[in-house]
From TrEMBL:
CDD domains (UniProt xref): GT4_PimA-like (cd03801)
The protein, known as: Glycosyltransferase family 4 protein
Organism: Paenibacillus shunpengii
Enzyme nomenclature, EC number: 2.4.-.-
Pfam families recorded: Glycos_transf_1
Amino acid sequence: MKILFTFFNPSGGMETLNRIRSKALMARGYECHLLYAVDGEGRKNIKGIKTFVTNDNEEIKRIIESEDYDIIVVCTDIHLLQKVKEMGFRGKAVFEIQGLGTTDTALELLKVFDSGIREYADALLYPRTSHLKQWFEQIFPAIPQFCFDDPLDTEHFGYVSYPPKPYPIIGWIGRIEQNKNWSEYLRIVFELRKQIPDLYLWMFDDDTLSDPSQKDYFEFSVRTLNLSERLIRYSNIPHEQMADYLSIIGDSGGFLCSTSIKEGFGYAVAEAMLCRCPVLSTDSDGVKRFIKHNVTGKYYNLGDIKHAVGESLTLMRNRGLRNQIISAAEQHIKSEFSTSIYCDQFESMLSRITR
């Protein structure tokens, strides 16, 4: 069976998801290809998977006809879903949603998607995220739906030991845009530095995908909060190296701070936990699958800087609780989010929509 996974660009969580699931399914005998509308920095992570990069309709049609796919999984791009069907594709088209940003943005997009999903989608696929599940079951009850966790490469991506840094590091992973809520991260670290002056900030992002309207505000905020000398910004780190950075953050006595307003799945959080880097996060919905407060991580109330600082200090100073959280989090990811579990569920979906 041949499967094509599509997205706008190879970056962030979608690049990770498509690469991990393609390799896992290929190991089970499926032939998996990737199609991206435009190129991106994350393409350098892709090895051994046939990948197309084009937004040209004729070229897309040629690819679909020549490769003769059985299944095409179209993530978020409702226009591509329509084009695929109108190009004469006779296999099954699965429309996938992994996260649509803030609640207001998501609901607006669903209005845009509504007619296209009803007419062209043979099935819907999304992670176990309560707001996505609620919306799709209410809006599209007649369309077959499949809801299961995304996979992590628990066999090859994980903790790496390095000499510990002589200062604690607070990490952040995302894009400079509204939903990732970078400004809250800066305000939390600003307050933390009053009590821990030698603190460092490591921010990981894809600078090519930052919201242009927020770039100047970001630079202004860093200067105003006097964080420039303590901030190290990493752009487009190869994915396999992120395990090293996350492990170093954890061993420094710091943590990953996730400030997102809404997340569909939250790869950054799950990967940090897999690398023994504890996490402080907003309750952004998708991370509920990973974090149980004071068991596998910590929550703080969105917008409540004082609460975030208090939870941060507990996570950094209560060594017994910190070590318990680190061990429980790593084990939780390994046991619940393996590629084997994902492939079993994906194959179950295939059997239902192709019979």
